[in-house]
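Can anyone check this?
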Amino acid sequence: MKKSAVIFIMLAAALALSACANKQAGTPVGTLPAPQVQVSNATLAAPEANPTAKETPLAAEQPSPTPEVNQAVDIPQPENRTHYQLNTILNYYTQYAVVDETITYTNRSSQTFTELAVVVPPKYYPGSFSLRSLTDGSGSPIGSWQEDGVRFTIPLKTPLAPGETTSLKFSYRLDLPNHEGTYGVSGRQTNLTNWYPYIPPYDEEKGWIIHPQQLENNMLVGEYVVAEMADFDVSLQLTDRQELIEVAASAPAEERNGTRYYHLELARGFSFSVSDSYFEHEIIQDGVRIHSYVFMEAQEAGKAVTEIAAQALKLFGQLYYPYPREMISIVAADFLHNMEMDGMVMISYGVFDFFNKTPKTNLTILTPHEISHQWFFSMVGNDQAREPWLDEALATYHEVLYYQRYHPDLVQWWWNNRVDGFEPKGYVNSDIYLAGGYPAYRDAVYLRGAQFLQELRDSVGDEAFFAALKDYALSNTYKIASGGDFFAAFARHSQVDLTPLLAKYFKN
């Protein structure tokens, strides 16, 4: 094997297993401690860890009927959604932003609230968040509130009964940290994910659903944010050299008088990635604008990623329902991990830089992974801290579904080098707080999760498997789903006793 190929594969292995796993730490994030695997022709022919797992490729057939219309529009939309108005002024070169934010919130619970919980993620970064003012809907200043880390507990002047609506208005400054991640400034981009105060979901039994970050060796293990569907109206004004700066976002922009305006409905968050170094490429597939933003050395890969994404969107649209947004942004991340957002994904620059123009590359592996999150994470939500397998195991398995459809001759290669070669251990339903940090989390949730889903598919058969997945998606779109919802969908389509399988892969 050529030396360059070995180097590519070693880095590729590390990057592949970092997908969505190391997201936004309170301190700078280093290279993920993923094992390195050298691939050769010999290892490609190695014995399978789960021999039956690879004998039913999708190839060119459709595992479930192709929807003729966008079925998402027929799913009842949650009423009285929270609305976020974010008027943002960003100075890209001096690395700060000033934001005026209005949250309009309706109490959808059966409880009467005398206070509201608000999560402020930038407070994980010391000195990043400076509150200038806080008022209620009438404009009256809120003089006192409790702070506990990133949580603000804000008293209400008038109790908020079920069905009633109130507003909170924040004015604040963000001094963006030098941080190679999804919030902060790196050498080539500024990223704004989890950058504004938000109201978390409220559970009638558990109360406000707020989880802390989990750090191991200064690295974030998994994700901690749980968010409901909301609507966003966002404006962005750049104060300096805006003719040099490109903006990737969760939604398309309408520009008026030097200000960009965005409107996004039914989303769990709104994100930006801003740079003066982006090269752009766009294609349109089935009415969806697929837009890539990459750095200079990766322009060819930037074109390739749009084609891979188009294939993934088509496949997953057939499996569930067509992608419901008019645009998706694919952004080269100036760091060594990957991340999904509503309407946008970030894939490490290393994945783009080492694109080898073949399907045996991390760009082909990871693009379907991140695209599938537009269904499992975005449209179908979950508690990403307590049940991360509901999006990450599914996203990993959607990689092989992509290969089964478009590159069936490489399915075995994918299993050997993405999953089986790491000999993963652990329980699939591990949360982000498990002992052992990121490697254990990766093995249990991503890799064992993929093995579990394949064995589940083998147990119930293709027809029931894909019918149950589609049922799970349709039944839980716009909601925060649980493992119970997942297995309830399978119970509706199969009578197979899953007890031995669950005992093998799940704790309790």
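Reply from J.R.: I decoded it. The chain has eleven helices and 25 strands.
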